[in-house]
Design a protein that fits this description.
175 residues, alpha/beta, Rossmann fold, two-stranded antiparallel ribbon, 33% helix
Length: 175
């Protein structure tokens, strides 16, 4: 798919997800955001077990998605890699994922999750107020009944992640 076509597809997907936030399942929409984040973030090749290794998404603590994340990822891929997800309770497991979702009720675990990940290329996505300022990469929030997102590109760069300029353009940047 060409760069222009991918840009149009991303803009359409994000607009659709944001426009439907008031009429649909909040975590179904957040699952769609995670899918798009997986497609517009690049991880270093060494982050994977091999050329066809999966992109693993972890959900810290209790899983608020109620199956929505699994449904959103079923049969989908990012950069030719299959997508998998699973919840985990021990913060030390954070380094074993490429992306970690941290729900509001797990926000206090963020320092332990970040410490466990260390310098591993893990994208941290959360939904608590101030998530990006506390060390997270992407913060989902509601504004006017729409799901929006903030990105702290400095955090992602330190982890060796490259966030697409198209995704950065759609976000509010936190420095």
């Amino acid at each position: 798919m060409g760069v222009l076509a991918r840009s149009v597809a991303l803009l359409a997907a994000v607009h659709f997800v944001a426009a439907c936030a008031h009429a649909s399942n909040e975590y179904g929409l957040k699952a769609a955001f995670l899918l798009n984040f997986a497609r517009y973030v690049e991880w270093p090749p060494a982050a994977f077990s091999g050329a066809d290794g999966p992109l693993r998404i972890g959900v810290a603590g209790r899983d608020p998605f109620d199956g929505e994340l699994d449904r959103a990822l079923a049969g989908k891929s990012a950069a030719g890699r299959p997508l998998t997800s699973r919840a985990f309770s021990d913060p030390s497991e954070a380094h074993g994922f490429h992306m970690v979702f941290v729900s509001r009720d797990q926000a206090a675990q963020l320092p332990a999750l970040l410490a466990a990940a260390g310098t591993s290329p893990v994208l941290f996505v959360g939904e608590s107020d101030g998530f990006c300022r506390a060390g997270g990469d992407i913060e989902l929030y509601l504004e006017d009944e729409h799901i929006r997102f903030r990105i702290n590109p400095a955090h992602s760069a330190r982890a060796g992640l490259a966030i697409s300029s198209k995704l950065l353009h759609l976000a509010t940047l936190v420095h």
